[in-house]
Amino acid sequence: MKIIVTGSLGNISKPLTEVLVGQGHEVTVVSSDPNKREAIESLGAASAIGSIADVQFLTDTFTGADAVYAMIPLSFSEPDLGDYLRRIAQNYLQALQQAGPRRVVVMSGWAADLTRSENIEHIFDDLKTSLTIMRPAAFYTNFYQSIDLIKGKGFIGKFLTLRYVGLRALLTGKTGLLMGNYGGEDRIVFVSPKDIADAVAEEILLLPQGKNIRYVGSEEMTCNEAAKIIGSAVGKPWLKWVLLSDKDMLQGLKMAKVPDKLAETLVEMQAAMHSGKALENFHRARPKMGKIKLADFAREFALVYHQK
After folding, report:
1. pLDDT tens-digit readout, 66-90
2. What is the pLDDT of residue 301?
3. Which domains, ranges and CATH numbers included, belong to the chain?
4. What is the per-residue pLDDT across 121-133, written as a single tens digit (0 to 9) for each?
5. Under a CB-based contact definition with an 8 Å cutoff, are residues 95 and 68 in contact?
6. Can you name the residues that pair with 215 across neighbouring β-strands?
7. What is the residue-wise DSSP string for 6-43?
8. How far is residue 38's CA from residue 41's CA, in Å, rounded to a whole number?
């Protein structure tokens, strides 16, 4: 098969490319970075360098392909995240409609259908081809964004908070640290990007009719149980995951001068996880869990943690 993989050499796209090339498929990887060309081609794939904001580039790249894996990289430099996601999803839709691949797999998120701003799945309803929407749970790799905070304070916070709030804005009179509006004893499904890549590779070879949904997870536990696994791997078995209210989370983001719409989106995304509705939907779908457990990832995490 001729398969197009978007997402450059990211956490999912790189292992996905390796799997598909290993299966003997003709793979083209889309990247906006010309410096990635050599690394892409070293995997045995072709490279297509251009922007997913360019519909004509996408159309030209997708034309003649049997299958397309479409993902939208999150961009928090955009003041309105929802508008950005919808805009890029529309670009994909136009290009896919014009190019006409018979199989499309779109990356979403396990709580995307529960949020107003993040849900772009409905945009693909008009796509007249075999379509699967992937809904992976919370990525193991998000823990990398908490390394500095774990080292400094011995707490874990949601990566979106850490990226945009900064250490000074993390300090609050009520809790000592602004961490995120899900955590603590909330039960969450976590997932390895490698398990997601394997699931996408499976889906690409299938040809179900119409629109389908596939959830992907590796292991379910509470946030504090996850924190203990990560903490134990780095010598801090007492590690805790602090939970804030939606109000405190929003206030902290605004103190950090995050644009209002973006701050509201971040709070909404985390609130959907704290509510337990994402977990209910996951259980209802009854997906098969992946192979890689959090303890496996924690060993990789510890190597990176101690190098910083």
Report:
1. 999 999 998 777 878 888 999 999 9
2. 96
3. 2-136+193-216 (3.40.50.720), 140-188+220-307 (3.90.25.10)
4. 999 998 999 999 9
5. no
6. 135
7. -STT-TTHHHHHHHHHHTT-EEEEEES-GGGHHHHHHT
8. 5
